[in-house]
Amino acid sequence: MTYETFVDQAEQAAMAGNWAAAELIWRAIRTHIPEYWPSYTGGADALRQLGRLDEARQLLDQGAALFPRERSFPMELGRLAMIQGDWCEAETYWRTALTFDIRPWWVYTELAGALEQQGRLEDADAVLHEARIRADERNEITLFTYPALLASRRGDWTAAALRWAEARERFPSATEIRERHQEALARLAEHDPAAYQVVLRDAGTTY
Prior knowledge:
InterPro entries: TPR-like_helical_dom_sf
CATH topology of the domain at 1-70: Serine Threonine Protein Phosphatase 5, Tetratricopeptide repeat
Mean pLDDT: 93
Structural class: mainly alpha
Low-confidence stretches: none
Largest sheet: none
CATH architecture of the domain at 1-70: Alpha Horseshoe
């Protein structure tokens, strides 16, 4: 049997939810073809699904040491840290993932989420602002809605109204954005009528 056959078997086992079989096959592939890096991430995924999180972490650490130029490892380690609620570790891994040339939008939002869980909302805001400049997919809707959500969670209804207005202008067919914008305007009118009048003078907030 070729290694491609073993890889197919591992992937089929994973798709079928047979994580024990997938883990065994990925382990066999690592034994015979240690230079095949997906066997480390695939094996770690199977271990995670089996609830063996510490072993998954060890395997990913091993893979990261062997393949330092493969960005999948800090990403998978970031996901695992998030699952374990280790927000500081997650932050470190997501920041490492952003040192690579390819920077998916969701790595920025995951980093922002780890920062938010630490209560560092301003830092999360800064990361999302950077994403609008440096991410590979700068028009992703989440890069507009997440900053608005952060402002809402801070109770900064002026910023929330302006950010939801921007998101609404960019994605006019998104019903939830329209509703969130209207809610932010209502909250602003309730808490700061003067600021509400100022915001209304912005054409983007009047529709």
